[in-house]
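for the writeup, i need someone to sanity check this before i put it in the appendix. the sequnce is what the collaborator sent (i think, or maybe the updated version? ugh). structure was predicted straight from it, no edits. if anything looks off just tell me and ill rerun, i have time this weekend
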Amino acid sequence: MAELKTKPTKVSVADFINTIEEEQKRKDCFAIVKMMEKVTKEKPKMWGTSIIGFCDVHLKYASGRELDWFQIGFSPRKQNITLYICGAVQEQSTLLKQLGKHKTGKGCLYINKLEDINTDVLKQMIEEGFKAKPFYK
């Protein structure tokens, strides 16, 4: 089985966010960091070159595959901000309806900017996803 290339790094999260050219996206990313820090009570880590993750977990799938990952996180992509919130897409459909302008993918939530969504709902989704701990055995 191939080794996962995305691993925690020593790169500063603040330094990474400060490289984002678009001012609004940079501000939104700092706001998302604060939301996730408040919920997890942990500091973020850079995972690979572009993912900000909170709460390291060791995942073990039914297939036997194991890997180290993070419980919640996000990545400021060129097109949007991709949020990785455990259970947010599959199990939080009621909250998604209240969120505002967004898209979903398999296990991911995509937003363009915080201004487009209800941030109170996003905070609730982060809290619910953090409590769910769906990957733990």
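The mean pLDDT is 89. The two ends are 21 Å apart (CA to CA).
thx in advance!!
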